[in-house]
Amino acid sequence: MTDRFIQKFRGEKNVKDKFIKDQQDKLSLGAIDRRQFITSAIAAGIAIPTALSLASDAIAATPKKGGKFRMGLGHGSTTDTLDSGTSENHFTLVNGYTFGNHLTEINSDGKLVGELAETLESDDGKTWVFNLRKGVEFHNGKTMTSEDVLASYEHHMGEKSTSAAKGSLSPVKSIKADGKYKVIMELDSPDTDFPYIVSDYHISIRPAGDMTSGIGTGGYIVQSFEPGVKSVLKRNPNYWKEGAAHFDEVELLSIVDPNARQTALMSGEIDAMDRVDLKTINLMKRNPNINIMQATGTAHYTFPMRLNVDPFGDYDLRMALKWAVDRQELVDKILLGYGAVGNDIPIGTANYFHNSDLPQREFDADKAAFHYKKSGHSGKIPLSASDAAFAGAVDAAQLMANSAKKAGIDIEVIREPNDGYWSNVWNNDAKGWCACYWGGRPAETMMFSAAYVAESKWNDTSWKTTDSAVKFNQLVKDARKELDENKKRDILFECQRLIYDDGGLLCPLFNSYVSANSKKIAHGKIAANWDSDGAKCVERWWFA
After folding, report:
1. Residue 30: pLDDT band by 50, 70, 90 thresholds?
2. 105 near 97, Cβ under 8 Å?
3. Of 540, 544, 532, 543, nearest to 71 (Cα)?
4. Are 108 and 442 in contact, with CB atoms under 8 Å apart?
5. From the CB of residue 141, how many other CB atoms can be counted at a distance below 10 Å?
6. CA separation for the pair 385, 398 (Å, rounded)
7. How many CB atoms lie within 10 A of CB 6?
8. Contact 14, 45 (CB under 8 A)
9. 3-state DSSP call for residue 10?
10. Which of 178, 216, 449, 524 could form a disulfide with 99 if both were Cys (CB 3.0 to 4.6 A apart)?
11. Confidence (pLDDT) at 10
């Protein structure tokens, strides 16, 4: 198992395109000059006029150093920490990427590349060898070695670990060092997607003995951290990654209220914001100093039903609610067209193995009423929502309640406080049904491992013990080790069908990432694997 195998699945660019892109990156970083770039491009078969144009584009995109970057993020909680294992919202996600690195990462093109692991290799998909970069320093001056990688993984895999990545790493049977710069991980069975799993934002590499203070190898050093308020960081002068981390100072602000974020951006108090309130997007578009950015990927909005909480353990009750949603109305009124209808699976059209064979669910009052009557349920069904889940979540819940009435189903929308939503409401047995959002994952088994396998800490539907759930868990294991692409597709399609039919996932929307920033901000291609340029905007952007 090599990178070539992974590229076969993920559609890597051809060698010529990749070579030219690498040469452009070197030119923009100053590693080669304009004459060297043009000579290389011509040698690769590029016509002279095209080579000149490509050189100009690369030079124009050369990042500038300096300035203080301020960003307003629509998440944040007083329970936030600097322990990446407990990261559960976009504020901690962006913050973690700002001061930390991982063994692998997803680049702006959506491709898997090495980060702290310079190269990785496997012959069978079961034994993975990670060759670490040499000379990488933590913020405390310690040189990163295999000892730190082992300690970091123990933090997420250990028996007493509370990390959200524990379930994803459960297939790791052993991890050991082979010298100071090589780590070998042995899985209990082959997993062709394992290199994607180690890119999980939870699995940040920290110095042995200190997993929680915020010391990492990233482009910025934490100066102060106030949970649910802000994080202040300064550029790491010894950052190992070339052409990254351009700002002198960074201030990440938790501004959960979308109107407050918008006001802060339009008044110049911040330079960028995530999660634009689509109801007021036209107002922002009229501001000549602001750019609106849209990126479509794997992100989706959900309303998970916990099977271990009454009445959601009843199959027909779940089916009734799935048929009672007018999904197109939600796309039109909540997303204002910035997205697409969901089909109760967490795998979108941007994923390689999206199951497009499943019939699209649409609002059907008769089917909803049929299943509801069959369930035997009567009375109100509480649905908790807060705009902390996603902008418009409360309105979406109310629209769902309105359409359900046409089927004789009484949904009681409970508006929950923004603060503490992720600890008190979501994934909590005290609330059987709520609003949620997911950024999605680049690999299907990675998404399943994050939220749907039985051992996952984030299994927010508590879908674990039905016959379909048991079958699903085995199929996910089968998919990880399958080397034949056609067989892998069949398995992953069946996994999606089981969630679609039996699971507690009600996924009506696949949302586009819509953000805004000052026109003073410059950047390259915007990634779509997470909001905010793959959540790495702080590392990738600069002031023009």
Report:
1. low
2. no
3. 532
4. no
5. 9
6. 9
7. 20
8. no
9. helix
10. 216
11. 37
Mean pLDDT estimate for the chain = 92
Q: Phi and psi (nearest 5°) for 333?
A: -95, -30
- For the record, the structure tokens of 26 come out as 């070197």
Mean pLDDT to the nearest integer, 189-218: 95
Phi, psi of 23 (to 5 degrees): -65, -35
- Hey, CA dihedral for 492, 494, 500, 505, is it positive or negative? negative
At 228, the pLDDT band (50, 70, 90 cuts) reads very high
Burial class (CB in 10 A: 0-12, 13-18, 19+), 25: middle
For residue 16, the surrounding DSSP H or E stretch is helix 15-29
Cβ neighbours around 136 below 10 Å, total? 22
pLDDT digits (tens, 9 = 90+) for 339-366: 999 999 999 988 889 999 999 999 999 9
Backbone angles phi, psi at 392, to 5 degrees: 95, 10
C-alpha–C-alpha distance, residues 478 and 492, integer Å: 9
427 closest CA partner among 464, 460, 393: 460
Read off the pLDDT band of 13 (50, 70, 90): very low
Query: In this structure, is the dihedral angle defined by the CA atoms of residues 407, 408, 414 and 420, taken in order, positive or negative?
Result: negative
Q: Which two tokens stand for residue 387?
A: 């705009």
Alpha-carbon distance 321 to 303, whole Å? 10
Residue type, 6: I
* Token output for 540: 């990738």
Give the span between the Cα atoms of 421 and 463, in whole angstroms: 21
Dist. CA 169–CA 46, nearest whole Å: 44
pLDDT at 37: 82
pLDDT at 11 over 60: no
pTM for this one?
Answer: 0.74
Tell me: pLDDT of 238 over 90.
yes
- Asked if 81 and 227 touch (Cβ cutoff 8 Å), the reply is yes
Q: Which two tokens stand for residue 172?
A: 């790791």
- Does 431 have pLDDT greater than 70? yes
| C-alpha separations of 128 from 2, 142, 144, 334 in Å | 10, 26, 19, 44
Least Cα distance to 402 among 345, 330, 316, 340 occurs for 330
Measured in residues, the chain has a length of: 544
